[in-house]
Amino acid sequence: MSDPVVRVDTTGQVPPYEQIRAQLAALIRTGRLAEGERLPTVRQLATDLGLAPGTVARAYRELEAAELIRTRRGAGTRVAPLPPDTYAHDAGRLTTLARDFTSAARALGADTEDILTAVRDALEPGSPSSPPAPGSGSATRGHRTADVATTVVQRLPGGAAG
After folding, report:
1. In 3-state terms, what secondary structure has residue 143?
2. Number of CB atoms found within 10 A of residue 39's CB
3. Which of 99, 82, 70, 104 is nearest to 26 (CA)?
């Protein structure tokens, strides 16, 4: 499996700190970032994403408040042990998310098979039918990408647009 990636769309309606918070929370809750893994420093991630350090700091503060990460002087920011109820999900919310996604996909002209393929690809990144990840080819204006590895963040080729 490749290193987890955080993508930020600076032109979207969702604030960048919330995009970072949501993506890191999902990576932690799904186990793609394991307990004890070190996250990049606020400054490093901000630099790699082309954002202000305060934006990343806010995302980290909210992740700490949710008890998903811990920051300790000298030890950096690491993934915290998951609370026991982390794997429980709200079936109603999941159904709502699925309906929202399906509606948006149909508005784009996708049929049922297209939608199922997209979901499978999202569940198994890097599968043969997956399109190239945003930021892995030419840069798209407003989209910024960073690999979140255990101790270092590296910019994907063409990942940050100016």
Report:
1. strand
2. 26
3. 82
